Amino acid sequence: MSGLIGATVSAAHKRAQFRAGLESGRLQRFPGAFSPLVAKLIAEIGFDGVYVSGAVLSADLGLPDIGLTTLTEVTSRGAQIANATDLPTFVDADTGFGEPMSAARTVVQLEDAGLAGLHLEDQVNPKRCGHLDGKAVVPTGEMVKRLHAAVAARRDPNFVICARTDAAGIEGIDAAIERAKAYVDAGADLIFTEALVAPADFEKFRAAVDAPLLANMTEFGKSELLTARQLADLGYNVVIYPVSTLRLAMRAVEIGLREIDSAGTQSGILDQMQHRSRLYELLRYADYNAFDADIYNFALQGVS
């Protein structure tokens, strides 16, 4: 039955795995998953972890990424995705869903839900997508209070608390660097600088901040898309691909639906679909069947 119903390792093990990855000197690659099924594919291919994007969760609910989702929604979906694999799952917790006490509760809820870590950002609440213009950030001291509350609420020391700063596009890179240093001093384990533009920006940040760093390689945003090799060479510790799987899926879904609408059948696009057999393979149908056979292996006698 190993791994059929859920993960084969504990949440504590996954958190220790994430912490060890940060300290390994090897770039940790965390694609975004919009469902547990996508998380299973991420694990099968061999990535280091799974990321749950706030923008993707919002989009999946049919909402823009402007702080409309709730802690309950993020916790519920995050738990489902985290339980699907043995990989650590790292989640976007926006601004902590309120004041510093809310950030503390967010840590407790997500830790209990089996997540390996979260990131909190220094935007004004309610936030907006990090690659949109018109963002605003809170004073550094206010973000430090969020982080102090989050760190104080953590029970498992391996639960990773990442601080995201959106200040680079508002106050400049030097100001973002100073914020990052203050966030490390406040207890952040990992620093996520949103919307850096060129490789030189990433390099400057790496040279200035003595802490693990995360790079966001989201498409169609402000950042140049750097390869995993480039990021590793720059000394980054984690890279996320937050919306890639959703964008791939939604593009394919739109093409397929338009074909069905115009042609009246899906028969012309079968080669673009995941085959039933591949889905069953990913879901391990055969293993479930064998498990059932082992349990229900008796025969009724004398029944007509």
Brief descriptors of the model:
8-stranded parallel sheet; 46% helix; 304 residues; 13 helices; 8 strands; globular; alpha/beta
Any chance you could write out the topology, listing elements then pairs?
Layout (H helix, E strand, L loop, with lengths): L10 H12 L5 E4 L4 H10 L4 E3 L1 H7 L10 H12 L6 E4 L7 H13 L4 E5 L18 H14 L6 E6 L2 H4 L1 H13 L4 E4 L5 H10 L4 E4 L11 H7 L3 E4 L2 H20 L12 H8 L1 H11 L9
Parallel strand pairs: 1-8, 2-3, 3-4, 4-5, 5-6, 6-7, 7-8
Task: Decide which structural class fits the backbone.
Answer: alpha/beta
Number of helices: 13
- The average pLDDT value, as a whole number, equals 93
Strand order of the largest sheet: 1-8-7-6-5-4-3-2
Largest sheet: 8 strands, parallel
What is the global morphology? globular
Tally of DSSP β-strands = 8
Oligomeric grouping of the chains: single chain
Query: What percentage of amino acids are in beta strands?
Result: 5-15%
End-to-end Cα distance: 33 Å
Taking all Cα atoms into account, the compactness measure Rg is 21 Å
Q: Write the H/E string, N to C.
A: HEHEHHEHEHEHHEHEHEHHH
Bin the helical content.
Answer: 40-55%
User: Which parts are unreliable, with pLDDT below 50 for 5 consecutive residues or more?
Assistant: none
Description:
- An eight-stranded parallel β-sheet has the order 1-8-7-6-5-4-3-2.
- It starts with 10 loop residues before the first helix and ends in a 9-residue tail after the last helix.
- Helix 9 (199-208) links the parallel strand 6 and strand 7 (213-216).
- It is of the alpha/beta class and 304 residues long.
- It has helices spanning 11-22, 36-45, 54-60, 71-82, 100-112, 140-153, 168-171, 173-185, 199-208, 228-234, 244-263, 276-283, 285-295, and strands at residues 28-31, 50-52, 89-92, 117-121, 160-165, 190-193, 213-216, 238-241.
